[in-house]
Amino acid sequence: MSRKVVSAVELTRLSMAFGAVTDLWLIVILSRSVDAYHYMPVVSMPLAQALACAAITAIGLFSFSASLQAVFDTTNDRMIGRGMPAATGYISSAPAFSLALASLVFALVGVLAFGTGALLIALIIAGGTLFQHGTAKFSAGLGLLTVGLLQAGHMLIPNDQFTFTLPAWLAMTHATAVATIRHLLQSKRPALSTRALWLLILGWTLCSVAIIGFGISKSTGSLWPESTPVYGPLFPVAAIALFIAVVRRKVARASSPAIAAEKVARYGALWQSLYAAAWLFSWGENWWAVVALVVAGIGFGAMTLIKEIGGSADQPIAYRG
User: Fold this and answer.
1) Which residues pair with 91 in a beta bridge?
2) What percent of the chain has pLDDT over 90?
3) Domain span at 188
4) In 3D, which of 41, 72, 6, 101 has the Cα closest to residue 303?
5) Which of the pair, 228 or 74, is modelled with greater confidence?
């Protein structure tokens, strides 16, 4: 495999997109287990089609975001005179822009099967991604919160009427936390000042109330489905605790803050697959939970393979952001 191909794969973080895929698969499976959504396209279409369209959408949007970030990073570098391409010497801004556009079209192909509501949400997410990379990231508090909101928003694509909003809330919280840790480890600018931190906390609190409140207001029963096992909540709690332990260990053993930040990014993205498995176990969907674990394993394997092909596994991916 040539260095340019490896660079492109690293650029779009396709190995990390496994987490995004399982996010949407989670909503597909849970939606199909609730009779109230029988009228939704995600339920009425064949299961294989729903899973395929969800995967296409997730990979497309994930790649769109990564490629668009490369375009903006390259533009910023040139404005301040660095003259560096998006992925250290192997891919420039023009291919990155083309890849971003192709990824968005690819995502919209998958979205169309879920209806006009899903298409609207996807376009909003695409606009939000453009806002994030072009404007919001220059305000630490707003930028970090936007990362989390985009993560939660894309989970609404298969079913915008889904009332069990705790997975979306956890996705938002997790993505915001991962982005914040990376921001601090890399000492990014603008710095996360006390004012920016309070803005982030306030924004996260308001968004949490909105997301969970939407689920409560639309639900006819309790927030947590009564048909699920009593021990169900233990699974996502265990997944959260395990992630905290893994991140602390990886950061402590990293040889530099840059490598620590890269590890947090990779494990943070792939951990979405483990969260999906945890939610599925909590609903009693054990077979699908095992599938999510297998996807997570494939993702971890692909991540390691790409790192070995592209260079030393002890070096951060050659991509700024």
Assistant:
1) 87
2) 50
3) 3-310
4) 6
5) 228
The conformation of residue 87, written as its DSSP 8-state character, comes to: B
User: Does the pLDDT of residue 215 top 90, yes or no?
Assistant: no
Contacts 24+ apart (CB under 8 A), 209-218: 211/152, 211/165, 211/168, 211/169, 211/172, 212/165, 212/166, 212/169, 214/163, 214/165, 215/163, 215/164, 215/165, 215/166, 218/161, 218/163
CB atoms within 10 A of CB 303: 21
CA pair distance 83, 40, nearest whole angstrom: 49
Give the number of domains in the chain.
Answer: 1
In single-letter form, the type of residue at position 39 comes to Y
Supply the pTM of this predicted model. 0.86
User: pLDDT value at position 1?
Assistant: 46
Nearest-angstrom CA–CA distance, 107 and 118: 11
User: Two tokens at 319?
Assistant: 């991509």
In a domain, 255, yes or no: yes
What is the spatial distance between Cα 317 and Cα 269, in angstroms, rounded to a whole number?
A: 14
Is position 321 within any domain?
no
Q: What is the CATH number of the domain that holds 291?
A: 1.10.357.140
Tell me the C-alpha distance between 209 and 300, whole Å.
33
Q: Which residue has the tokens 């029988």?
A: 38
Please report the beta strands in the chain, taking only residues with DSSP state E, as ranges in sequence order. Answer: none
Q: State both tokens at 165.
A: 């909003």
Contact 131, 68 (CB under 8 A): no
Handedness of CA 141, 160, 216, 34 (dihedral sign): negative
Residue 173 — pLDDT band, cuts 50, 70, 90?
Answer: very high
Are 91 and 4 a contacting pair, CB within 8 Å? yes
